Amino acid sequence: MWFDESVFYQIYPLGFCNAERENDFGEVRHRLSWIEEDIPRIKGLGFRAVLLNPLFESESHGYDTVDFFHVDRRLGDNRDLKRLVQKFHEAGIRVVLDGVFNHVGRRFFAFEDVKSRQSGSDKKDWFHIDFGGNTHYNDGFWYEGWEGHMELVRLNLHNGEVQDYLRRAVEYWLDEFDIDGLRLDVAYLLPEWFFELLRRTVRNKKSDFFLMGEVIHLQNFVKNIAPERLDSATDYECYKGLTSALNSDNLFEIAHSLERLFGEQPWCLCRGKNLFSFADNHDVTRAYTALQNKRKLTVLYGILFTMPGIPCVYYGSEYGLEGDKSQGDWSLRPDRSHLAGGNEQLTPLIEKLSAIRTEEHALAYGSYKTVVLNNRFMCFCRKRENEEIFCAFNISDSAVSMHLGEGQGKELLTGECCTLNEVILSPYEVRIYKKIN
Questions:
Q1: Nearest-CA neighbor of 283 among 33, 3, 62?
Q2: For residue 108, what are the CA distances in angstroms to 58, 119, 146?
Q3: Mean pLDDT, to the nearest integer, of 125-141?
Q4: What backbone torsions phi and psi does residue 79 show, to the nearest 5 degrees?
Q5: Cβ contact 314:10 at 8 Å
Q6: What CA–CA distances, in Å, run from 281 to 214, 252, 332, 431?
Q7: How far apart are CA 310 and CA 278, in angstroms?
Q8: How far are the Cα atoms of 52, 257, 289 from residue 327, in angstroms, in the given order?
Q9: Cα-only R_g, the chain
Q10: With the C-alpha atoms ordered 350, 353, 357, 359, is the resulting torsion angle positive or negative?
Q11: What are phi and psi of 89, to 5 degrees?
Q12: pLDDT tens digits, residue range 11-31?
């Protein structure tokens, strides 16, 4: 499918467009055009799909939705979003939106009705409510919030009216904006049958519609990556393993995760499945900030783009942008002015890696096998039918020699040909060899 062969670019629109942190529900501010202006740069870097975090009407950060049918007025209106998706499509870039279906903001119309009419509201069963309790908001009743965050009111997805409302919203996004997929926020809290409901909703409109779930732990969730449910889920295990392995000079750590998830053994957790892989995102510390030795950043992205999965780059990280989670979520979500300039090593490497990942289907669909493994250098092979690609990495401060096999190989980053019997990697170098049969 197109998503298996794409490199994604993630944008947090409320941050990118420098929107006010709190919605005053006043006049519409047409800022989505700022993303539209950036499309040539995004395409030039080789990205063929974008993931846009929440952009429907909300109270503050986007995950507290109050209206699923209207674009957040801090960003623009529905016509602006329709034009933005059209412009991305004209550039050959698919568009995936953030679907927030587990909870809503307190100003969501149905919850406002409950606050007004209390137990007499016909919307009371849209939520998990106890009229014998209360919260610090003093509404006169208790309700379930997302993981204790009472500003995020959890929806009762078992309610037929709620299901119908969300189904109509998804159908509207498809019909009105022509989107290509959805990221399902906190998918680990959504019931399994809900994934099937979404799949049935989108299948007749777009057979190749992408459904991806946000999951922190994969162990009990992999069964949901199936044709009738989801196409993919976030790979937090390898996200954590990558940074940790590079910071501890212990590539055995990331190799263990890759073998456990994608190796050749039949018991491997995600063998034959493509997870959504990333080095950072809108919820975690930026990769550049997290890495203790910044020279390893190129290796981090080299592994990310060549290991099994669907690689995604968070906006600004292609330039080595800083961002520390301990300083609050908004520090991870800067406006577009921070995208000026670039990183003379990382930025062109990501452009090359994007082209290689898009062109070489062995990286999208191939098997995974460890070839060489040492604390500070490693190589794995991605194989599909008669295609073999050897991905080699060195995180040490000295050159290393590796034996990758017999025969000739073409180094895809430089175009040079060499023998695979002995390859030399300079300090902190990435090399990707395609075997020449």
A1: 62
A2: 9, 17, 15
A3: 97
A4: -65, -35
A5: yes
A6: 12, 24, 8, 26
A7: 8
A8: 23, 29, 12
A9: 23
A10: positive
A11: -65, -40
A12: 999 999 999 999 999 999 999
Instruction: Using the structure block, give the residue that is written with the tokens 């009743």.
Output: 141
| Cα–Cα distance, 276 to 424 (Å, whole number) | 31
The first and second tokens of residue 286, run together, are: 């930026």
Q: Are 335 and 15 in contact (CB under 8 A)?
A: yes
CB 402 within 8 A of CB 376: no
Confidence of residue 378 (pLDDT cuts 50, 70, 90): very high
The Cα 218–Cα 214 span in angstroms is 10
Decide: pTM greater than 0.70: yes
* Residue 194 in tokens: 């809900």
CB 369 within 8 A of CB 378: no
Q: Is the pLDDT of residue 340 over 80?
A: no
Which tokens hold the place of 152? 């995020």
Tokens 């049958």 locate to 193
pLDDT at 107: 98
> What type of residue sits at position 37?
E
Q: What is the tens place of the pLDDT at every residue in 267-299? A: 889 999 999 999 999 999 999 999 999 999 999
One-letter amino acid identity for 74? R
Helix (H) or strand (E) holding 314: strand 310-314
269 close to 392: Cβ distance less than 8 angstroms:
no
